[in-house]
Amino acid sequence: MARFDDLPADQKAVLQLVLRQGRTYGEIAGLLKISTEAVRDRALTALDAVGPTGLPDLDDDFQDDIGDYLLGQQSASARATTREQLESSQSGRDWARGVATELRSAGVAGDDSLPEIPTDPAEVDEAFDALHARRAARADQARSSRLGGILIIAAVLLVIVGGVLVLTGVIGGSDDNKSKDAATTPTQTSTVATTAQVEQQINLTPPSGANKPLGVANLVSQDGQRALAIVGQDLPASGHYVLWVRNGSKSKFLGFFPVVTGSGANKGRLQGLVAAPSDLASYKELLVTREPSSTPKQPSTIILKGTIGG
Fold first, then answer.
1. Model confidence at 196, in pLDDT bands (50, 70, 90)?
2. Using an 8 Å Cβ cutoff, are 275 and 227 in contact?
3. Half-sphere exposure (CA, 13 Å, Cβ side) for 229?
């Protein structure tokens, strides 16, 4: 496993153009007057050099797909497929996190330049077993009591990592009214109870004032990094829930949540973890919407909303 600084100059240059300037393989090929495949080969060879070795059941093709995923060089459908494969591959997640750690430590990748790497299933299962127990214990209480229970469970869900974290699906950051997949990447995990500071708890309720669904977002910080952890319950099944921040007509896309199912143990549950945007203080609302497409430009149907800083 090499260090980024030890890579050949051409490989470092390609990664810097991708991660710092947001260039595609094709754009870099045009700049350098070489083929797109030659650019991709340099990028993936560099990631292979800085990533961990000897991981079981991680073939070259899958590793290359993960590399394209980390560098934001896949279509929306390919990105979703790779993320789904990562959910079931411990070796794939370990390799992706090792690469992300090195790129961040070298200063090549920032908070908004790497996509999310799925949380290990055992961590999510443990958090939502606790959420289910809390809901059962408070089933006979009013809406305020129910929301208070979710607040406590949200703290359990928080998975804070070194500097890079995020949610699910195709979650990421973007400029105002412009969707762009980008996210940060978990490396080493810990719980909010021991390491993270909760800066704010944001209650999420339906705009109509109904009792369902309900949710909560925790704004937390650790080692100079900030994240938003979101938990919701009683949501209709859908694969198009999106997280936004908004201030009047100005909105920012933060990413897609994992699919909310309509059956099974996780019925109606929504959860996600995303790096807080650096300009969070300039927004007043946190929104969870249900969108008709995979490329939303602005919020449409608001399912849950809450006040930031309120």
1. low
2. yes
3. 29
